[in-house]
Amino acid sequence: MSHQHLAPEQSECLLRIVEAAPQVRRRHQFFMWSQGDLQRWLPHKVSVCGAYDREQRDLVFDIFNSIPVPQDIIDELKDARSEIVNMAVQVWKRTRQQSCRLDLAELVSGHPVWDSLVSLGFNQLLIHGVTRPGRPDEIESFFLFAHPQREYGDEAMSALEMLLPCVHLTYQRVCVTERQMVPVRTAMHPVFVNPYQRVTPITDREKEILLWVRDGLSNQQISEKLGISALTVKNHVQKILRKLGAANRAQAVAKAMTMNAIGTGASAGESYT
């Protein structure tokens, strides 16, 4: 993909990505935005997004995954001090802070999390970041993208290079908004909010329905798949929204995916491999 020679459909896709970005202010909106036209430019199933937190004086990472990911891998990728994140940063710095790849399959085996990633088909991490103006050693944001069974070539690196400013600004806006949404902490009553804690467990039936919702089926279509009434499906969906604290179906799917709450299926009727 050349920066100077974009096909008309590529230019239209890029324009849609950029035009939609200013509306993205919350975590679930970022996830849904990343699953749209952004996937056409930069296919991925897992994205790890880090932003510098002034209070913690360090990069704070979050993970967005559209397929189930084991908890030990999530913990490793979200840890700014983990070996794999540090290695990604060092590789990026060695390439003069250009988009680059970390080939996991070429690393020395023995690290259980790295081995798990490779066993799941994640052979590469696509990497890029943003530093503070005039301070190349101070990282403002850092991103890792991965897709099982996919090799990232020069075209993908070029796409990430072009998209980075938009992704950076969008994720920075999300981080600011999410921090502002946290209730004020007082000396008497400190409040630490995690929107995914203490959620009422999703039942197996609700997981099944969420998978069909994720695939874009209506209540009527889901009822035909499951052999139940559309009203029953509607009631299940309403319960799911309440449990997840979601305003709509898209937000419910986004929250459930980030919680790994909807099982291991690639879709409602098949197993992910």
Structural key phrases:
alpha+beta; about 270 residues; Beta-Lactamase; single chain; Arc Repressor Mutant, subunit A; about 45% helix; two-stranded antiparallel ribbon; 2 domains; disordered C terminus; about 15% strand; 5-stranded antiparallel sheet
Architecture overview:
This protein is an alpha+beta fold and 273 residues long. It has 2 domains: 8-181, GAF domain (Beta-Lactamase), CATH 3.30.450.40; 204-271, Arc Repressor Mutant, subunit A, CATH 1.10.10.10. 46% of the residues lie in helices and 17% in strands. It is built from 11 helices and 7 strands. The protein has helices spanning 8-20, 27-34, 37-41, 71-78, 83-94, 112-119, 154-181, 204-214, 219-226, 230-244, 249-258; strands at 46-53, 58-65, 100-103, 124-132, 135-146, 265-267, 270-271. The strands form 2 sheets. It has a 5-stranded antiparallel β-sheet with strand order 2-1-5-4-3. Strand 6 and strand 7 form a beta hairpin. Helix 2 (27-34) crosses helix 11 (249-258) and helix 8 crosses helix 11 (249-258). It is globular, with a radius of gyration of 20 Å. Residues 184-199 and 269-273 have low confidence and may be disordered.
